[in-house]
């Protein structure tokens, strides 16, 4: 009897051990809980949303300095104490590695399409279908955005729609450049897909890309390419032009182009895309308040300096910041306190008209340029709003002092004509602990200007819509 009990216990223990070992095997076979494996990634709405927003790379405020208000440095409009190497013979070069020739962002988009599009077509992505399609549309936008950067930097460029293996022969074949007009048409096609799939009410509002943003960007791309072809026609900068390098490429043997047809195509695309935005969005009013604390009651002024830009219909896409989330910049530290090592050029300031509509040299009311204050008298409201002058209110607690042009480069007034655009009324944001004013990426005003230019370039005159755009722009903001 005792032996039988021992055998029974041994049998039970063996069964129990097998059960434990089997359970251990099941446990060890589970996917890591802290990782998402490729097999199950990009199968849900939230994963598509996260992947798309991780590809965002737009010029916005960041780090120390004046943020995007420094983007005009080294142009006819704005100067810093430094210099740009683009004006030095032999120094403005096309990088051979990385830079404009980097394909990493394009590959990220192509990987997404290869993985997601089949799942989408088979209904294998969980979540709200409208949101799923919106995020797919975002990726089409982002590939178009990256390709437009390539066209602007390099012109002719390879068109790559899929990920490639790390094999020299495959990579060499794929790296053959296509004519810039073909690349631009590819961009337009991607943006058409984006417009078809995206909506204007994504989670995140105008902090995420929208259908309207895609329409605006399409007008930018089409206008750029149409006018480039028109004004470089007959040169080596245009496909098929005399001396065009592509003429000697084996893979472009037999290439031909009707340049006038291409010009008309792109300008028409610009007209249609910009009109879609113009028809939907009105511009922000410039109420004319430009002095003292009242400037902070002017909606047009505040549009560039607000912490929350959701209240401005004209702002189609913008970036928000949150100091508590460690997402911030420091532009108020410079804009409110000093010159930030930049300034408007004298030529730019003098290009602003008088209130009468006349240039400064034709209006006897022009006060001259002995002081910054007199320069602004009876001038275009935008100059009054966006250029500092001594004694003007800069925030709730302080006023602008006389320009300090001999200070250290980080803070000096370079030209004496200092930037006021973007200055916020909150003095606490100027203390260096972090600024959180929003940063505009796309504004509807661009669509108004794009429509006027594209329609004139196409027809040689302003049509009724273009005239209306001009009147609205002048009456509301100038």
Q: What is the molecular shape?
A: globular
Give the spatial strand order of the biggest sheet. 1-3
Strand content: under 5%
Q: Helix content range of the residues, please?
A: 40-55%
Pick out the low-confidence regions: 6-18
Largest sheet geometry:
2 strands, antiparallel
Mean pLDDT: 91
Radius of gyration: 29 Å
Measured distance between first and last alpha carbons: 106 Å
What does this protein structure show overall?
- The protein has about 475 residues and is mainly α.
- Among the domains are: about 95-280, no CATH class; about 290-445, no CATH class.
- The chain has helices at about 1-30, 45-55, 105-120, 130-155, 170-175, 180-195, 210-230, 260-280, 300-305, 330-335, 345-350, 370-375, 380-385, 445-460, 465-475; strands spanning about 80, 315-320, 345, 440-445.
- The strands form two sheets. A two-stranded antiparallel ribbon has the order 1-3.
- Helix 7 (about 210-230) packs parallel to helix 14 (about 445-460) and helix 14 packs antiparallel against helix 15.
What is shown here, in short?
The protein is mainly alpha-helical and 478 residues long.
């Amino acid at each position: 009897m005792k032996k039988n009990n021992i055998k029974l216990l041994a049998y039970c223990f063996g069964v129990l051990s097998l059960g434990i070992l089997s359970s251990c095997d099941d446990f060890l076979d589970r996917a890591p809980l802290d990782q998402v494996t490729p097999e199950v990634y990009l199968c849900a709405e939230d994963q598509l949303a996260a992947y798309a927003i991780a590809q965002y790379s737009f010029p916005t405020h960041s780090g120390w300095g004046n943020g995007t208000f420094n983007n005009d440095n080294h142009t006819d409009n704005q100067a810093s104490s430094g210099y740009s190497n683009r004006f030095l013979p032999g120094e403005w070069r096309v990088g051979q590695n990385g830079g404009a020739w980097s394909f990493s962002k394009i590959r990220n988009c192509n990987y997404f399409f290869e993985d997601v599009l089949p799942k989408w077509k088979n209904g294998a992505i969980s979540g709200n279908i409208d949101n799923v399609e919106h995020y797919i549309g975002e990726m089409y936008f982002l590939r178009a955005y990256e390709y437009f950067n390539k066209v602007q930097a390099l012109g002719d460029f390879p068109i790559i729609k899929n990920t490639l293996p790390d094999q020299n022969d495959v990579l060499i074949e794929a790296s053959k450049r296509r004519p810039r007009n073909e690349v631009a048409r590819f961009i337009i096609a991607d943006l058409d897909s984006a417009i078809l799939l995206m909506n204007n009410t994504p989670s995140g509002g105008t902090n995420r890309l929208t259908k309207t943003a895609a329409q605006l960007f399409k007008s930018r791309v089409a206008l750029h390419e149409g006018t480039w072809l028109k004004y470089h026609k007959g040169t080596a900068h245009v496909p098929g032009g005399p001396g065009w390098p592509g003429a000697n490429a084996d893979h472009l043997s037999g290439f031909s182009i009707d340049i006038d047809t291409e010009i008309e195509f792109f300008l028409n695309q610009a007209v249609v895309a910009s009109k879609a935005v113009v028809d939907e969005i009105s511009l922000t009013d410039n109420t004319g308040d430009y002095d003292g604390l009242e400037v902070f009651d002017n909606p047009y002024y505040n549009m560039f300096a607000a912490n929350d830009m959701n209240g401005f219909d004209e702002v189609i896409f913008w970036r928000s910041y949150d100091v508590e989330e460690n997402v911030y910049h420091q532009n108020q530290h410079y804009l409110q306190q000093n010159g930030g090592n930049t300034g408007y050029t004298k030529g730019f300031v003098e290009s602003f008209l008088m209130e009468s509509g006349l240039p400064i040299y034709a209006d006897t009311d022009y006060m001259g340029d002995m002081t910054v204050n007199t320069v602004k008298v009876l001038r275009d409201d935008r100059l009054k709003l966006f250029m500092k002058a001594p004694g003007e209110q800069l925030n709730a607690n302080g006023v602008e002092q006389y320009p300090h042009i001999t200070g250290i480069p980080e803070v000096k007034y370079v030209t004496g004509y200092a930037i006021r655009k973007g200055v916020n009324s909150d003095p606490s944001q100027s203390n260096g602990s972090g600024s959180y004013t929003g940063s505009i990426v796309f504004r509807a005003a661009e669509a108004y200007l794009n429509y006027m230019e594209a329609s004139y370039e196409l027809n040689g005159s302003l049509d009724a819509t273009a005239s209306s755009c001009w009147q609205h722009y002048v009456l509301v903001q100038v």
